[in-house]
Design brief:
Layout (H helix, E strand, L loop, with lengths): L3 H27 L7 H22 L4 E4 L3 E3 L6 E9 L1 H5 L6 E8 L2 E9 L4 E6 L3 E4 L3 E2 L12 E4 L7 H13 L5 E3 L4 H9 L5 E4 L4 H13 L3 E3 L7 H4 L2 E4 L1 H12 L3
Parallel strand pairs: 1-3, 9-10, 9-11
Antiparallel strand pairs: 1-2, 3-4, 4-5, 5-6, 6-7, 7-8, 11-13, 12-13
Helix pairs in contact: 1-2, 5-6
Length: about 260
């Protein structure tokens, strides 16, 4: 059964998700226009964050808030903070690709204790609470995949390819890792990638230059599903330094070794 806190989070995410799903239908129509739907999507993103903020504040007015669109609001209780990406997968949304999510995490005294990733088009709600496991649509308990070797693994990465030195490094990593695995995927939504690692759909994931709202929701989910998640140095700083490697214990170790071998 959901906790009271999780009920609050789910209510906020589903309400924002309904708004995004409605806007997503409009984006598909706007795709044919000359101007394009970029401004429309920005407004959809802001609307979704406003909905999440209002719903969470209504139930927990003393909690802080850190969001992609509106920045940080310091809470008065000094212990709790919501970390939120109201539309993770904006480029997908912009192009009418139904791979995006509302992502919310709750931080308590510096530790992530509850999180969710909700795709309103696929109607998939991934949730996790510290010590309570990770779940899909409240029915299916999530476990990371059991594969032990990279040669059997389907791994996912995130890369923008914008010409930066970081992107060049990721491309070198990809060139090194791709021949060693069964397949490589790129979805465009980091919180979804981590939720799918928790669900065993992906065996491993790596990406750099991520923000806390990209990582925090999936971070707890992977851990509660029995997985391992770290930064590129192998330490648990992924939420704050933006480097993420995730998988089961075996895949994480091998993927981390492969990443470290490239410079």
């Amino acid at each position: 059964m959901r906790s009271a806190l999780m009920n609050i989070m789910v209510q906020a995410a589903t309400k924002a998700g309904r708004s995004l799903a409605k806007d997503f239908g409009e984006v598909e129509n706007l795709q044919v226009s000359i101007k394009g739907p970029a401004d429309f999507v920005s407004n959809a993103d802001r609307r979704a964050e406003e909905i999440v903020r209002e719903e969470l504040k209504k139930s927990r007015p003393t909690y802080g808030f850190l969001g992609e669109e509106g920045g940080e609001v310091i809470g008065t209780d000094g212990q709790h903070r919501w970390i939120c990406d109201p539309l993770d997968g904006t480029t997908n949304f912009l192009h009418g690709i139904p791979m995006f999510a509302v992502a919310i995490a709750l931080e308590r005294a510096g530790e992530i204790v509850a999180s969710l990733v909700y795709n309103p088009v696929m109607d998939e709600l991934f949730t996790a609470e510290k010590g309570g496991g990770a779940w899909l649509n409240d029915r299916k308990r999530l476990r990371v995949a059991a594969r032990r070797h990279l040669s059997e693994a389907v791994c996912c990465l995130g890369i923008k390819v914008t010409g930066t030195s970081n992107d060049a490094l990721t491309l070198r990593q990809l060139g090194h890792i791709a021949p060693a695995v069964a397949g490589i995927r790129r979805t465009g939504s980091a919180s979804t990638d981590l939720a799918w690692v928790a669900a065993g759909r992906f065996d491993g994931f790596w990406e750099a230059r991520l923000s806390p709202w990209d990582v925090a929701p999936g971070y707890l989910m992977v851990k509660e599903a029995g997985g391992t998640i770290s930064d590129y140095a192998g330490t648990p700083g992924a939420i704050w330094n933006g480097q993420v490697v995730a998988g089961n214990e075996h895949i994480h170790t091998q993927l981390l070794k492969a990443i470290k071998a490239v410079n």
